[in-house]
């Protein structure tokens, strides 16, 4: 029995690589083939993506198909689905992460009834089907819970199938067809397929024992006119079937039982608990802990984050865990093997919770200190307290060679280890070499600068450099500043200025995608990760030699460093890059 998994890729290589790697590692190559469709229609991305797959050892384990022009989701999938000889086909989105025996369980569900034509797994993000990750848990725990749950073969018929991860029986594709391409942008095409099959007496069900994490892009905007038109078309065809399915589905109890049991489970056996000062992960040490937590969960190590302060600003981030407030640790009975922290002012909370565990559960967890700051940090902070809190750790990790040497000298009896972050310079350095340093475009050359509120000197240098550059340009340039005290005078010649305060991570990526040059001079390591995201968006990066980015950025052609002593050097580098780049004015 053969299964073909189809993964269409339209954007960001890092996210797609995670999905491909997880799918490859959880399936049997003898009975499963994976077809990856690069539908970006961008030759630079094509070459870049292919090299990444090769470097990770995935290229020989999959079939990579490159569309020279973007065909769109429906056509890209249809071209591969039609004519398949496999018994099963699976469409898998690039913003997913499969877990455990997901495919085996989905096939078992499909085999349980010859009338089952479509199968969805359980997930954290899908209309009606979602099962939330409980507070203090991760995708690995929920996957294990669902796999072990006694369903008594109660496979639930669903209202409408969704295509984030959709298994189809090929015999019914041949008999009743695939996606209807008349649904522009794809809105409604999956629901149309679902109802077409249902009206033929077939079934679409959920396989609750399979769990697939789905970030979700939220692309189906209900205010979109095309979405509205497609919705009318769908209801004209299948309104009675749709309404009947909803009424029947609301009477199903298995999913509700699962949700209730998960939410009421208090004991949480966690491998690694990160204690963080905030749930805001747009930059700094908190972002590093978030990335590490995600990376651990990707490889099956249950990890979560407890925040001592909850930011009410709404962010949309890729989290493979459900964060909690620090005070909830005591009610949920979180029992970690390791407690990790990064910032000094969380040491009290760490020690307090260790003492609670010792008293309540009669064991002592290991303490991991992540020394994430770099050389510039020591110009403004108390190094003695830094050493004191680092000494609490049973193990100390750092991503900074400077900090490793500094702490090893101060704490000779401790072993200070270097780590590679989830976005590491060694891992991505070779890939970043192949990004074109300059590209032609009709768009305006755009400079983006990012800064924290408490790094005033860096903000001042950037603001001065941009102000001086404006007087020497012979064309218009857009300058976007977000965060911190970056501010330039209004009415500068040749500068179109946009200023942002706090914005979600997805919005940061959107800005970087339209930018050409990224500048940062913050002392915080997490901003180096944003700089690497900028590189993936084909930006040139300028970073202060003492900045947080310096600790993680690879040495490649697209990165240059400046001294933060004054603005003259930065000004010269900006002018050189702008003048070398052949983008046109508006």
From TrEMBL:
Q: What is its EC number?
A: 2.4.-.-
One Pfam family, please name it: Glyco_trans_1_4
Gene Ontology terms for molecular function: glycosyltransferase activity
Please state every residue range assigned to the domain named Glycosyltransferase 2-like: 4-176
Decide whether keyword Protein transport is in the record.
no
Q: Source organism's superkingdom?
A: Bacteria
Instruction: Note the coiled coil stretches, chain numbering.
Output: none
Q: What is this protein called?
A: Glycosyltransferase
By its UniProt entry, which InterPro entries does this protein fall under? Glyco_trans_2-like, Nucleotide-diphossugar_trans
At the highest ranks, the source species' classification is: Bacteria, Candidatus Dojkabacteria
